[in-house]
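User: structure tokens for this one?
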Amino acid sequence: MTATLTSLRIRNLALVEDLQWRLERGFVAVTGETGSGKSIILGALKLILGERADKSLIRTGADGCTVEAVFELEGGAPTARLNPWLEAQGVEPCEGGELILKRTFTRAGANRQFINASATTLSVLSQLGEGLVDLHGPHDHQSLLSVEKQLELLDAFAGNAALLAEYETRYREWLSLTAEYEELSTSESALERELDLLRHQSREIEAACLREEEEAEVLARYHVATNSRRLVELATQIARRLSDADDALLPGLAELTRLFRELEKLDPSTTPLAEAHTGAVAALEDTVRELERYAGRLDLDPEQLAELEDRVTLIETLKRKYGPSLAEVIAFGAQAAARLHKIESRGDELARLEKEIEAARAKVQTAGGKLSKTRKTAAPKLAADVAGQLRDLGFKKSGFEVTLTPQEKPGPHGLEGAEFLFAPNPGEPLKALKSIASSGEISRVMLAVKSSLAAQDTVALMVFDEIDANVGGEIAHTVGAKMRSLGAARQVLCITHLPQVAAAAQAQCVVSKEFHDGRTRSHLVEVEGKARVEEIARMLGGQTESALAHARELLKGWK
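Assistant:
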């Protein structure tokens, strides 16, 4: 996903009361005194990207904290790819090329997150965050020590996304067939118990001869049957009031019929009225006959009522045992019958599965072989590229290799594992990163790897927190150059204490804190011109003329 962070707002997070930050493209440095609140920027980004919230971060005196971020999507393609995924998660799509994220949490424990003003889950926010920001802090560098991460980086360098997806699909198919085979190969006693249960279940459902639509029909008939006595009484009363009672309606209408006939003789134009009256009388007479027939049908014998009661009881029993609806009961029966057939013909099934597993394993090997081939080609190229980047970063005679180790059996990500080997000093043997790299070294190795992978990296925002720790002098200048180079194609934020790195940035923001009305507040402002020179001079050690001159020279070198 190609997206640029254009706005970040933080309210009531640690020392920040209300901070609105409009961000530039390219390489942006964030500087400030130790303890001024630079890490709060990183913490806010982690929150908006789905990290677990800690209510101890809420500013003293506030009930809750809010972080909001606006990302601008580059061109139409990212929006076209992102919107279907958002809609599948029940989230409003992006409009106007903007993606808006919001996160709130309170001291009471309420934790809410929003994407484009739609409430969502922390899991969805976290998944989205993985494609938005590549974040590297002192803790994040440790991910480089994982052999799984190293294999992932090699595949990224090799452009193996399609081959890896194909392999993982074949691998899952093979695992599924293997699991099915193992399930059918369980002990005889366990299978016999399952067979007994399946036979009972399938026979019970089959014997019921169920239809999906019959439940409503049976319940309606049963409801009428159980109320038949009262229904007969009502139908009989209505019929009597129409025809047989002393004040019945139909006998009284006979006089009206005579009057209509007399009216019609005197004025033939009233014939339609007379005919309407005659039709109404006929309709009432039909109603009486239908009521009598209806009452006759309701006179159910006890056997019919008992049959209906038994059917209702059977339906309710099956629903309690196999599903909340008849459709699910019928589906359960079909599944039980299919499973029963599979176990009863276990020999044939196992033979079939053996053939399918063999074929699936061959497909895994074929897909894995293609993946292995590209990895073997890419590994020395990545190693050489990283080694060159490391030389720029001060490791003039270091060694770096990417080794591939075949596995005994196919794994979830291929037929081999990858490991980065590093020797920071000449004369030392290459060893795994986790065995020899200090925090300063691992930071530079991470920067070297990221520089090598810049062309393949699709994440537009990279955030570095003190990646320049334990370096200085000319190496610090090179780190700044690498950051600026990365910033040519993407947005780079770097929290740094090194003036050489800050001077290389296209924009610089300073975090400071002030004490006012008994409270400490952190602020962030972008510095330019004289103010930026003074900030670089402060980082160099003071506001002396020599420091100011040095600061101007550092900045001049990047114009």
